[in-house]
Amino acid sequence: MNLTGFAVPCLNPSHMQRKLCNGDGAGGFKPLSMLESGVCISGNGKAMVRLSGPDHQYRIAATQRMADLELFELNKRQQTIPVEPGDQFAVLKLRNGRTQKQELNKGSSFLSQSASFLSIGDSVISVQIKNNKGTMRTIMVNGHSKELSSL
């Protein structure tokens, strides 16, 4: 049990329902229902981290005040790419020609203690990762040549 804090909850528990938000690709986010996301953190959520299991499956661990640790696993298989110390961000090139920049969480933020990896969906064809020395490396994924090169 997670017994952090001494605050007495004074809200109706239904007000504490958390929703997962899905990005629309244009900077907006849409809250998903629990049925759509498959995630239900019903209490006073305190922390959430991303994990990669021994089979490289994407997992999320969530804690709540005065409740058990909850683990969630993504049912859809995704490729994971380990992130090295000093990596700052990744640029994902998609099949439709668009690109997506993803910052790599490190530090003292909400997701800062998550495992260091990128989860890559089927629509990604390559990933460029830039480190704090300005070096870029390119990784081809999802059926494309998986060679690694430095720019």
Write up what this structure looks like:
With about 150 residues, the chain is mostly beta strands. About 5% of the residues lie in helices and about 40% in strands. It has one helix spanning about 35, and strands at about 20-25, 30, 45-50, 60-65, 70-75, 80, 85-95, 100-105, 115-120, 125-130, 135-140, 150. The strands form four sheets. It has a five-stranded antiparallel sheet, with no helix packed on it. Strands 3-4-5 form a three-stranded antiparallel sheet, with no helix packed on it. The protein has a two-stranded antiparallel ribbon with strand order 1-2. The longest helix is centred in the N-terminal third of the chain and has 4 residues, at about 35. Residues about 1-15 and about 145-150 have low confidence and may be disordered.
Quick structural overview:
The chain is mainly beta.
Which descriptors apply to this entry?
single chain; 151 residues; mainly beta; five-stranded antiparallel beta sheet; three-stranded antiparallel beta sheet; 1 helix; globular; disordered C terminus
